[in-house]
Write a sequence for this structure.
């Protein structure tokens, strides 16, 4: 998902084959981590998705993504950081764990979701009324996780367990700006179903 | 602007040192409170319920957690003196990238160097030096990572300097031999009062780690 859609900035999208064949361009512009996404602005590279979002926010002033107040900004960065460093690895692990480790990894992932449920404070978004840094960081929970859950049958996020977070995920995915940048759901679902089938067979 | 500033910290923490340096750079008066990590205070648990970790910066009763977030907060609130991040967005993104690189790599690799032995230690040492060399490359011929001025990346990395002695003793290697420019940079930073006052004594760190290894049952 690309946050540069929010201020309405035109950009060129370049698809990378990250598993098999990273382009010389990618390796040139992100020699340290060799990962996507990399934003190129006037030929200058910026890597690490949250840093890219902050760069975009500081360069194009329309529709701010981060709050102006330093304390609110620190809180937005804190939650984005928590989502990136704790939630993402825990949720990824829960979805990839072999049968015997699944209960523990699901519990850890649920702890993360519980913390996020509270952090929302009943607001529409982590950013309040509008999408902020933490919402962008958490977009994988709103979009990717629901597809993965459908593919592997493991339910981490549900309306019963986390009503605010569930509602938030719906709002985020259906928000027009977000909706337009997401890859096609059914295509991803097919890819994940195939992957889980192969992994289950291998186990 | 000042209000009441409290820092919950633990003296050997490189992360706490970052915040101490930033506060000193801006000449902010604050109350330092030492935490016993085996017996965390009620205040720490209340102010950082998510991670329960130090450092925690408390400004007018409101907590800010995570050292690099604290340093940016300090820079933004006390924006009338000693700027740590440059004004240009691209340079800011670059500074944040390298501070993030330090966060992602240096702590864990350093910990592996003092905690492990044999092949695992050798692999950690190798990667550790590679990362320091990358940082050296980024420094180039500048006196600081911030260019001619001490800045965000300098604050992020220099606290590890007081831990180098410990890494070297446990890893049986010399960081200066591999990365002389980086050590020269660190010594230059130590000339600044804010850094010299904030870093712990390297021999005390070594003793601390010796005790820690005993307590953890690591040889």
């Amino acid at each position: 998902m690309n946050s540069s859609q929010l201020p309405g900035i035109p950009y060129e999208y370049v698809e990378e084959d990250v598993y098999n064949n990273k382009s010389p361009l990618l390796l040139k512009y992100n020699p340290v981590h060799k990962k996507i996404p990399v934003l190129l602005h006037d030929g200058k590279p910026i890597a690490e998705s949250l840093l890219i979002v902050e760069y975009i926010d500081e360069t194009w002033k329309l529709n701010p993504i981060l709050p102006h107040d330093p304390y609110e900004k620190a809180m937005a960065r804190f939650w984005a950081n928590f989502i990136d460093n704790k939630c993402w690895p825990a949720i990824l692990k829960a979805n990839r764990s072999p049968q015997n480790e699944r209960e523990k990894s699901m519990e850890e992932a649920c702890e993360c979701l519980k913390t996020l449920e509270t952090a929302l404070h009943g607001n529409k978004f982590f950013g309040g009324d509008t999408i902020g840094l933490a919402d962008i960081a958490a977009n994988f929970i709103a979009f990717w996780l629901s597809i993965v859950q459908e593919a592997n049958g493991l339910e981490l996020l549900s309306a019963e367990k986390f009503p605010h977070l569930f509602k938030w995920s719906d709002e985020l995915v259906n928000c027009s700006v977000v909706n337009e940048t997401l890859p096609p759901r059914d295509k991803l679902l097919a890819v994940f179903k195939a992957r889980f089938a192969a992994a289950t067979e291998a186990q | 602007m000042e209000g009441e500033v409290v820092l919950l910290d633990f003296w050997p923490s490189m992360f706490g040192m970052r915040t101490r340096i930033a506060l000193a750079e801006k000449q902010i008066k604050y109350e330092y409170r030492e935490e016993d990590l085996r017996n965390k205070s009620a205040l720490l648990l209340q102010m950082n319920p998510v991670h329960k970790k130090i450092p925690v910066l408390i400004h007018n009763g409101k907590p800010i957690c995570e050292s690099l977030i604290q340093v940016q907060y300090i820079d933004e609130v006390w924006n009338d003196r000693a700027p740590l991040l440059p004004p240009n967005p691209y340079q800011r993104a670059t500074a944040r990238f390298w501070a993030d690189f330090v966060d992602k790599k240096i702590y864990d690799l350093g910990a592996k160097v003092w905690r492990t032995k044999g092949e695992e230690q050798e692999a950690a040492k190798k990667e550790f030096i590679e990362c320091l060399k990358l940082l050296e490359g980024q420094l180039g011929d500048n006196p600081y990572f911030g260019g001619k001025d001490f800045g965000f990346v300098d604050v992020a990395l220099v606290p590890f300097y007081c831990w180098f002695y410990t890494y070297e003793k446990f890893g049986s290697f010399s960081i200066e031999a591999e990365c002389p420019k980086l050590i020269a940079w660190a010594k230059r930073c130590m000339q600044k009062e804010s850094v010299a006052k904030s870093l712990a004594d390297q021999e005390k760190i070594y003793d601390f780690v010796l005790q820690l290894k005993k307590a953890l049952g690591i040889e």
Q: What stands out?
A: The first strand of chain B starts at residue 5 and ends at 9. The longest helix of chain B spans residues 89-115.
